[in-house]
Design a protein that fits this description.
By secondary structure, the chain is of the alpha/beta class. The chain folds into 2 domains: 200 residues, Alpha/Beta hydrolase fold, catalytic domain (Rossmann fold), CATH 3.40.50.1820; 36 residues, no CATH class. The protein contains 8 helices and 11 strands. A hairpin with a 4-residue loop joins strand 7 and strand 8.
Length: 243
């Protein structure tokens, strides 16, 4: 069963998410998933994850941090802190109905979890961002509207707000490490072998909770190479089953 759920965010925006039950009745466990920068809830990775976890008895909620839907947040007025607030609001929405709640964040969704400090059974970071690399903000951006907006060139034009850019530039390794050290749920950090720009090891080292890391061979950042997504999902499932 699939349906759209809309939750009112603490700042008045509408949080849209896609909810999939594993069976005719709600399960006792749910995975809340957050996409990466420029990501969508209908991306290959999150669709494959939804199918896998439903087959294994987990309900799934895929959070849209921004979209074209009425009242939703737009990319140009999003920030990591706002995404973190939205993620926590979604988790709070589902907690009363579920015995076990888990959280997943891919790429910038992983960094969103660092900001969010989600209170769940366990979390999985899928090839997460940690400290945005300098080249990302200096090479790939052009200014619009006298510098108030930025256009991100990733195969097309994507409008980024100055607040998100400033937030990322201000995120030093020391600040990110301090936030990561406060995460309490058991944390799995999954890295993609072919991605070499993200500070995944630094995130793993900063975590002080129960933790584990694995590297998926032949995988790129979105795990679309061959069927590398299967290993990612199986390892995540095995981790969640422990808690």
């Amino acid at each position: 069963m699939e349906k759209q759920i809309v939750i009112k965010a603490r700042d008045g925006k509408s949080i849209y998410l896609v909810y999939n039950q594993a069976g005719n009745e709600p399960s006792k466990k749910i995975v809340v998933m957050g996409h990466g920068l420029l990501g969508r809830v209908d991306s290959y990775l999150l669709q494959m994850a939804r199918i896998f976890f439903n087959k294994n008895g987990y309900d799934v909620a895929r959070v849209s941090f921004y979209s074209e839907a009425e009242g939703a947040r737009n990319l140009h007025n999003a920030t990591l802190q706002l995404q973190a607030n939205d993620l926590n609001d979604v988790i709070a929405y589902f907690k009363p109905a579920y015995q076990d709640v888990y959280a997943v964040g891919h790429s910038y969704g992983g960094l969103t979890m660092v900001f969010a400090q989600p209170q769940v059974n366990a979390v999985a970071f899928w090839d997460p961002s940690f400290v945005p690399w300098v080249e990302f903000w200096e090479k790939d951006l052009m200014e619009l509207c006298d510098g108030k907006l930025k256009a991100l060139h990733w195969g097309g034009i994507n409008i980024i707000g100055q607040e998100m850019v400033d937030e990322a530039k201000a995120l030093t390794l020391e600040k990110a490490q301090a936030m990561a050290s406060k995460i309490t749920p058991p944390s799995l950090v999954v890295t993609a072998e072919l991605e070499d720009r993200l500070l995944r090891k630094e995130l793993f080292d900063a975590l002080t909770c129960e933790k584990e890391t694995i590297d998926v061979k032949k995988a790129g950042h979105c795990f679309t190479e061959e069927m590398t997504v299967n290993e990612l999902l199986q390892k995540t499932y095995d981790w969640f089953e422990r808690f």
